[in-house]
Fold each of these.
Amino acid sequence: MKTMTATEASRSFAALLDAVERGESFVIVRGGVRVATLGPATSGNGAALKSLLTDSPDAEFASDVEAARTAVVTDAYPWPAD
C-alpha cells in the first residue's frame, strides 16, 4: 500500500482515482498522521447480505443471542438530568 500526503492526493486526484481503479490502494496522511485509506470498492451486489439476513440462525446461536440480550443492563447508569 502506497502512502501519500493529503496535498499530493488533492493535486493529483484524477490520477489517484485512475490508480485505484487499476487495483492500487493508498494511505493518505496529513501532518504525518494517517487520516484515510483509499482503495478499490467492493463489487458485491448484496446477495450475501440478503442471504445472511434471511437465513434462520440455528437454535444454539439464537439461544446465545437471547442470553446476551438479557445480560445487557441498559439502565444501570442513567444519563444525568439537566
Amino acid sequence: MTTSTNDGDAVLARIAEMLLDILDDYGVDDVEITRDTLFHDDLEIESIDLVTLAGSLRAEYGDAINFAEFIARYDLDEIIALRVGQLVDYVTERLDAGTAA
C-alpha cells in the first residue's frame, strides 16, 4: 500500500491515475476524470478493464478494497451508470473502517 491518506481527493487522484493507465493502453490520454465521470459512457471502460482496475485497487490499498463486493451492490443498469465518485466513496469508507478498527 502506497497511499497513506483516506482523503477523498487523494483517493480520486489515485483512481484517476489508475484509469488513465488503463485508457493509455487504448491510446486515450486526453481525458479529465472527476467524481461525476461515468465509467461506461465517458470512459468506455469494458469489463476486462474493470478486472484490471480491481487488481490495481487491491495492489494499492490491500485486501480492504474488494471491487467484486463493491460492484455486487448494483444491478446492471446501475453498473452502466456508475460514476467514479461512487468508487471513491467506497474506497474511502473501507479505508476509514480499517483505520477505525
